[in-house]
# Entry
Amino acid sequence: MPMTKNPIINAFAALVYIALVASAMYYGSSYAGGEDNVFAPIAMLSLFTLSAAVMGYLFLVGPALLYLEGKKKEGITFFLHTLGAFAVITAAAFLLFVLM
# Structure
């Protein structure tokens, strides 16, 4: 998947990824049964690592490439715009949570 230059698209991509993971955890827990074993912590740590990589890609790769190309101001601005867009999306999600 090529990196977009639009911070709003990157922020929404992060939201979609989070929604997919949260949905899988919410609905998947009803299918997971049996006794506790070593595979649950392995799965959770693997999911944590995958999530860190996906979020790193969505939030940091584009700004880091700009920064390394000598476009330092543009790279920092791109990162801050992506972070700001995600902050607005997160605030909206919390507002929906409180109102429902």
